[in-house]
Design a protein that fits this description.
The chain has 272 residues and is an alpha/beta fold. It has one domain: Alpha-Beta Barrel (TIM Barrel), CATH 3.20.20.100. Helix content is 39%, strand content 18%. 41% of the residues are buried. Keywords: NADP, Oxidoreductase. Pfam families: Aldo_ket_red (PF00248).
Length: 272
Amino acid sequence: MSKTLATGRIRVMIPALGFGLYKVPPNKAEEVVVEGVKAGYRLVDGAEFYANEVEAGRALRHDDIDRSSLIVTSKFWGEESQDRDAVLASFDASERALGSIDLYLIHWPRPERGQFVDVWRTFIELRDAGRVRAIGVSNFSEEQIMRLIDETGEVPLVNQVELHPYLQQAELRAFHAEHDILTQAWSPLGRGNVLTDPTIVQIADAHGVSPAQVVIRWHLQLGNSVIPKSERAERLRSNADVYGFELGDAQMAAIAELDRGTHYGTAPADRQ
């Protein structure tokens, strides 16, 4: 399952299901990438901030991994500086570590600095130079995305945001759909907090699957791209095994009722 979206003069296929490397220790990152690809994932979500790109890149260079079949993501952190030179230096470092980058995201808008549009212009420059296939954002609001579009004419391919049954972001998802932006969910299991919810557990029991599989399947049926994270090979395999069942309309509606607007990660307004 994947979604093909336009970006500049080309089209890029983004897998609906990938795995993330957030908080994966560097000494485990190589193994996790190898096991994730072996489990069938074709989207590897990394970032400068995760401090494990060198190890992930080592895995991507393994002879038994077909790098051309993968979408590898990195993200610009930009805490110290967001000027053009900082963006280019950050990209250079991630590119050296990973070998190549398919999807590059602005990790946070940091709106009080007022520089995210300029950062986006540098991203466009990188894409137009052929150094990255596609560009997008993470943790952006509707207003911030519209600024990018209005001031540059370029629509992000992806907006990666915290999204799970307790934080469903319905209005933002509708905005994305209107502008052909892929919604990509980080912390898709609510950092485990949604997995003991009685509604999720009941639906899991009805299908004979795990609560995590129910939540991942819910994301896919909503049309989200989803990037669960695990350091364990068996959990990576289980999280990918979500295509043998389908949630019914009543079950989707029951999960829709769970929305609480609860963040378990950093809220975008709190990262400046």
